[in-house]
Design brief:
The protein is an all-alpha fold. The chain contains 3 helices and no strands. About 35% of the residues are buried.
Length: about 100
């Protein structure tokens, strides 16, 4: 008789089986800041918001990389850190932080 394998294919950053609430918070925060920075960089008049949220996303993503515990966290941080950096650079090109 064939035995059913347990299916645990759910999305998680905690691939080592331990909870990492601080690291996951930094991933989520960087993702939100990066998304806001990328969306607002498309509008010239929102350059201040784009630049500041991009800068905050770069800082949170950098610290998140420093304390990350799993490869999945690092992968998500690199993607969202790139989004924040793109939003920051385009925001700076459109007028800067002030």
């Amino acid at each position: 008789m064939a035995q059913d394998a347990e299916r645990t294919h759910h999305f998680t950053f905690n691939t080592d089986g331990r909870p990492h609430p601080l690291e996951n918070t930094f991933v989520a925060l960087t993702a939100v800041l990066g998304a806001v920075a990328v969306v607002t960089c498309a509008f010239d008049n929102l350059h201040v918001l784009s630049a500041w949220t991009g800068l905050a996303g770069i800082l949170t993503g950098g610290y998140g990389q420093f304390i990350s515990a799993t490869t999945a966290e690092r992968f998500a941080l690199v993607i969202t850190l790139g989004m924040a950096a793109v939003g920051f650079y385009i925001g700076m090109a459109n007028g800067g932080l002030a």
